[in-house]
Write a structure and sequence with these properties.
single chain, 8 helices, four-stranded mixed β-sheet, alpha+beta, Glutathione S-transferase Yfyf (Class Pi), Chain A, domain 2
């Protein structure tokens, strides 16, 4: 049976840009599970109202609905234990939670000036009022005023990524020799920028950039082949 995922899309419904949905897309690939993306937009909250939440990702696996990316990863490991684990033990789960918290407190704040206006430009018209009002309230600024110095903002992002750059100098993945869900948490966060921005803001000379390329190429180049807004 094919798993379905409500997947945040822009006007071009081939382009899926949610960082959290990307975590789930990579998790499904890691488990070797067939899935179908159902294009979802910010104002499509009625489509997922049975979850009690207004956000994606949401997966449908037979009769089971699961929402929130970390809960989906836990569910996939429990429901499909015979397939490669996303988080093989408590240590792996703790690492994934740490990376999630670090992305929330450090990486996303560095990415928002770079990405948010580009998101606004590519979403469908009916989402624009919602997106503008919710993001401007959250960020305390007009979308057009978030970015004032793109070069400096990219420098901030790459300084923020230094801990990962140091670690990835010694290991190909955050999980060591093989990727784990912790890798997909950070990858999904950075894939947001790679999907919506005119260029990827990661410094191409860094170990993080090499790691990102490795994850673009796994699973027969699944992430690399996915359309971007700049295509």
């Amino acid at each position: 049976m094919t798993i379905q995922i409500f997947d945040l899309a822009c006007r071009d419904e081939r382009i899926y840009f949610s960082p959290y949905c990307w975590r789930t897309r990579m998790a499904l690939k890691h488990k070797g599970l067939e899935f179908e993306s159902l294009p979802w937009h910010f104002t499509d909250k009625d489509k997922i109202e049975r979850t009690g939440e207004g956000r994606v990702p949401v997966i449908i696996d037979g009769e089971t609905w699961v929402n929130e990316s970390s809960e989906i990863a836990i569910y996939l490991d429990q429901a499909y234990p015979e397939r490669p684990p996303l988080m093989k033990d408590a240590a792996a789960r703790a690492t994934a939670r740490f990376i999630d918290a670090w992305c929330t407190t450090s990486v996303f704040p560095a990415l928002r000036p770079i990405c948010v206006l580009d998101v606004y430009k590519i979403i469908i018209d009916r989402d624009r009022d919602y997106f503008r009002s919710s993001r401007e309230k959250m960020l305390g600024a007009r979308l057009e005023d978030l970015s004032t110095d793109p070069e400096a903002e990219r420098a901030v992002l790459n300084r923020t990524l230094r801990p990962m750059n140091e670690m990835l100098a010694h290991y190909p993945f955050l999980g060591g020799d093989e990727p784990t869900y912790a890798d997909y948490v950070l990858f999904g966060t950075l894939m947001w920028a790679d999907t919506v921005c005119p260029q990827n803001p990661i410094d191409p000379a860094t170990h993080v950039a090499a790691w990102f390329d490795r994850l673009l190429d796994i699973y027969d180049g699944f992430a690399r082949k996915t359309p971007r807004a700049r295509d």
